[in-house]
Fold:
Amino acid sequence: MSDILDLSIGEAGRQVRQGRLSFPELAGACLDRERLTRRLNAFSEIYERQAVELAEAYQTLLRNGYDLGPLHGIPLALKANIDIQGHEMHAGSRILQGNMAGRDAVVSLRLKQAGALILGTTTMHEFAWGGTTDNPHYGACHNAWDAARIPAGSSGGSGVAAAVRSAFATLGTDTGGSIRLPASMNGVTGLRPGVGRISTEGIFPLAWSMDTVGPLARSSEECALVYTALSGETPLSLDDAPYPLRIGVIEDYSDQGLQPDVARAWQQTLALFGEMGATIAPVRVDGLENAVDAQVIVDAAEPSAVHGHWLQSRPEEYGEDVRMLLQAGLGFSAVEYLQAQRYRTWLRQQLERLFRQVDVILTPTLPFTAPLSGQAQVVIDGQPESVLTGNMRFTCLPSLTAMPALSLPAGFDAQNLPIGMQLIGPDGGEQMLLKVAHHFQQRTDFHLRRPPCINDSLSP
Amino acid sequence: MSDILDLSIGEAGRQVRQGRLSFPELAGACLDRERLTRRLNAFSEIYERQAVELAEAYQTLLRNGYDLGPLHGIPLALKANIDIQGHEMHAGSRILQGNMAGRDAVVSLRLKQAGALILGTTTMHEFAWGGTTDNPHYGACHNAWDAARIPAGSSGGSGVAAAVRSAFATLGTDTGGSIRLPASMNGVTGLRPGVGRISTEGIFPLAWSMDTVGPLARSSEECALVYTALSGETPLSLDDAPYPLRIGVIEDYSDQGLQPDVARAWQQTLALFGEMGATIAPVRVDGLENAVDAQVIVDAAEPSAVHGHWLQSRPEEYGEDVRMLLQAGLGFSAVEYLQAQRYRTWLRQQLERLFRQVDVILTPTLPFTAPLSGQAQVVIDGQPESVLTGNMRFTCLPSLTAMPALSLPAGFDAQNLPIGMQLIGPDGGEQMLLKVAHHFQQRTDFHLRRPPCINDSLSP
Structure:
């Protein structure tokens, strides 16, 4: 039925401009899709009446020559920790329940100025502090490919909404992996811009020295449209080949301890990039064994500083997991925090040197595919690994170094769960990452496959 | 009656946000005002049906929290040489009659993204090449204060529409004075940004090395809102005092050969700035006797290069004055052009040095107030001066040096015709000029007086 949602943002926009489709139809298709997939709990709030009014208004603007560009009239959804004027911004928490945003976050305003239609907000892990999007206050969000599994987090709803296309693209926030993890586990493309690249003003902070905000969407091309609106940068032509392309692979790291299907996808991805003309170069990074620990310290101490007051005065209003993490964050010493920051600088210097030899670094996004809800450990090669540290294993590298990274769909496991690969770029490399991913996506269809729940819904 | 149009842009916006006024009412008031003042011929085209639709759409957006800022829903008008998607861009010419713009000029798009409502286009001197806005193809535009007089040009319609407030603000283009002259003669504030500050992409060129685009409005505060939307700069707070302020006055220049009422306003302006705490410093600029000649050369050769082909193939389609000017432009030698450009560099270097000693330079905008239509000369102290060179006497300095300048209302002559003063600033000094003008306007009411044609129209 709802073929409209198979159109890319660019195609949908062209059809509207040719009069073969309208913004009200586009918004209606997303609202219908949201209803069909409601049990996944991707949306936190849906501005349905507003969406109908806005779609009409955007149609009127376009008819009168007010063409604000490729996002004009395109339904998007934003993570629930982003201020949208006149709407609740609860960041998945009970503490902020009823907190109405008096003004827009910078990203919300930029999307509005680009003509986007904000359909609503997406579910998230409480205060963005966790990777399962199992929210004690607003319910659990479920993986788009298998509702028994986690959608990852903290931007779980953004990943699921982008996967089922109840929105054409979504915004997530990423501190230690919160865009890339749900992108990987739900089979969509997610860009974590470098720290500071896009203003986080009006977004509830997690760990300010690593916090970023960026798009999740089906394709790199779609992410690029959103990224351009957010950054104000002149867009690169994605169609220009990114070659010669030198891809760095970190020795004794990127191919270690992977689930067999992930390991297979890793090898196939390398082979495909090789066929496409990229040079694969082994590179070394020292001290990676300390990366997850460093991230844990920074990603614990900074949030606990943010939450200090509430943690004292309203501890019972936090979910248990988040309260424990925040309380744990109080236990780190200043010296531990400073050592972690020194480690970050050293790691960043290593990567800066590497980026003189290679254009991007490739890793898997995660060692495994989506675990079952409630599953705390994944066993790989007989070795148990906690989901929490497994989540950080590869995503910590851009987080610690404040560099941009992108997760792109690169395969499926035997259970038809998506597998993601992570491209890491140097400072300012966001567009280059989008371009490399676009070229991969022109040769592959992993990003085009539809989660079974959509096909089921659409079957007669 | 139409008190709405006495509201500043800021006040009108606040009233809409408080629910005491609506965008359809605002647009309706401007459309009514345009009808009442139609004999002045300020508008080239009015998008009436569109204005009604857009006003409703903007009201819908605002109601749903899409608040695009202070220009949201504010009716503006653009000079007829600026591309507005889907509308005719004829630049006041017969040659471009029926030329439909396929896309927006950068300034049009930026205003749309800021939520502005473009009411239509304003009349102009053919191809912007002249100072009377007496257009052989579309009729003469008339001064807002006395319809028997010229509104100046080339952005005459923009000056008149801003003066009678058939639009809250307008865009003009300024090469040799085409924003500042109509601002001065119609009693409004007009900002010529420095060359290159605002993109002129999508605007029909006159002389590319001096072309700029900027706002005309009642107050500096209103010009600042438009300038911010166009430039994307973070706005200065206009309310912070610009003091200490050092105002440079060019010896043997700024006070020479002025009509007596202009001379009186000049002295009063200096005195007022002095009272407000500014230091008035005499400064010297060498070689000013060559400035008008240099401007004539550049402002003739570059347009003639642009028009070369049509001048050959379709000369009969130009108005006589413009054809003659363009043909005259063909007669300059390359050496003359290059010498003029060398002179510009030397003049600019002098001004750059001056701007280490003073913050702004003050001159009258014009030696005289609005001449009668058809009047070719103005006699001052028994000396005849052509309107054409008189127009350039003071405005040429920023044009030649590519620096920003602003004309602000600073008095009236015995016939109740407005007098303007010109503030010139260094590169990047646009916001400072707006701030200095704002402080002047907080102490004066010249910019608030209404042209008699409005009062007449409103009398029972």
Q: What stands out?
A: Chain A has a mean pLDDT of 96.
